[in-house]
Amino acid sequence: MLRNPDNRAPRSASTWVEIDLGAVARNVVALRWALPSGCRLIAVVKSDGYGHGMVRVARTALQAGANELAVATVDEGAVLRESGVTAPILVAGPIAAEQAGLIVQHGLVPSLGCHEVAAALARVTRRFLPVQIEVDTGMTRHGVPAEQLGAFVKSVQDRGRLSIAGVFTHFAGVGPDDLPSMRRQLAVFLDAVDSVRALRGVRRHCCNTLGAMLMPDACLDAVRIGGGLYGFDPLDGAGRVSLQPVMTLKTVVVGLRNAAVGEAIGYGGEFVCRRPSRLALLPIGYGDGLVRELWRGAEVLIRGRRAPIVGAVSMNQIVVDVTGLPEVVFGEQVVLLGAMGDERVTADERVLPGGSAYQVTTLLSPRLPRRFLSPRDEAIARPAGAGEVPEVGRAETLRPTT
Fold first, then answer.
1. Strand segments (E) across 118-188
2. What is the pLDDT of residue 12?
3. Within a domain: residue 401?
4. Cys staple from 339: which of 50, 158, 215, 344, with CB 3.0 to 4.6 Å?
């Protein structure tokens, strides 16, 4: 049985994640303002909304103007349906043939990339089932190779009961320097789609957040917004869309002690005090998602100032050097991700070469309570010329994710 991710979180938790649903709504509004007229916004809420809480983020995004949702797995789509979401849900990742019945049962839109899944879906559905076809234009991952698209479309049509509602591809680029390769993928995609008469008039989409911000002409009929929904800006503020971070990770000081010169801290003694030090203990570790390799030496915020993690990250504890902050007291609030005063620590600071900021938030343990901050009652601020903004309802607070 699938668990409902809306059980209440304890207010007494010493470590928690705050999710600003108002920021989610404002990001949707800002992104919609930047899209061409008629372009639909598909909010990507896979992997529990990148660790932010799939159900609550999905509801907020839809209320703020997103048209559809996208997930990675059938189970994620089922959770959304069981929570009362009625909007179209695209399962953008690969599915197993034995999951075809669940696709039909929950009214999900599968993405097709192989004949086996198409055959399974055609067998189990009793009515025309909307499907979308993913075209592989350079990821070499899931999807139909571009040169085989025509034959694949014909095989889908020949099976009957499968209605092609969309065709899409996925850009491999991760930053502005990848624009030339993304342009090449776009050309391959458009050439492949245009060569198949049966796909004329079918919805086309290829842009993620990066693509939508770099290539407005590539937005086509829809865009799939993932990172941008949560305030991850692939252009680091250089684009025309201003995005607001959504997540704040907080904990409290649960211990304070003095350490002398030469004392080693934590497993392996990899950090040795070079000065008389004041140390703060925080009740969070790699068991909560602070992967050692990503969080080694990270800075946290205490009283609006930065302080470094020292020693190895333990399963449920970390130690912070607060020698420069002698006023720190037991119970002091600490921010590991997010803002405090004029300072902010971001997930981008925790990215290793070749990594992604998404890793930082998606790896946070689902057992950490998510406290959802409601959107404000007043109208959401939006860029001039953005037009009317859909009303955003008040969300409940203190709900954890799965």
1. 129-136, 144-145, 162-168
2. 61
3. no
4. 344
Mean pLDDT computed over 128-144: 97
Which one from 50, 154, 267, 358 is the annotated catalytic residue?
267
Each residue's pLDDT tens digit, 239-279? 989 999 999 999 999 999 999 999 999 999 989 999 999 99
Q: Is residue 54 within 8 Å of residue 34, measured between CB atoms?
A: no
Is residue 10 assigned to a domain? no
Q: Is 46 a catalytic residue?
A: yes
pLDDT on residue 5: 40
**Sorting pLDDT into bands at 50, 70 and 90, what band is 3?**
very low
Per the structure, the complete domain to which residue 341 belongs is given by 248-345
Closest Cα partner for 308 from 317, 299, 296? 299
Q: Indicate which residue of 46, 50, 250, 286 is catalytic.
A: 46
Q: CB burial class (10 A; 0-12, 13-18, 19+) of residue 362?
A: middle
What is the arithmetic mean of pLDDT over 66-84?
98
- Return d(Cα 33, Cα 327) in angstroms, integer: 46
Query: What would the pLDDT profile of 371-388 be if each residue is shown by its tens digit?
Result: 999 876 333 433 333 333
- Interatomic CA distance for residues 251 and 398, integer angstroms: 15
Indicate the pTM of the whole model.
Answer: 0.90
Task: Quote the number of domains for the chain.
Answer: 2
- The CATH number linked to 327 is 2.40.37.10
Nearest CA-CA partner of 204 in 31, 191, 213: 191
Strand pairing partners for 264? Answer: 272
> Minimal CA–CA distance to 232: which of 254, 213, 258, 257?
213
Which of 205, 236, 267 is the endpoint of a domain?
A: 236
Report how far apart, in Å, the C-alpha atoms of 353 and of each of 171, 294, 340, 348, 349 are: 20, 11, 27, 11, 11
The answer as to whether 337 is a domain residue is: yes
CA distances from residue 4 to 11, 75, 142, 247, 401 in whole angstroms, order as listed? 19, 12, 30, 21, 9
Q: 217 and 260 share a domain?
A: no
Q: What average pLDDT does the segment 93-122 reach?
A: 97
Let me know if 358 is a catalytic residue: no
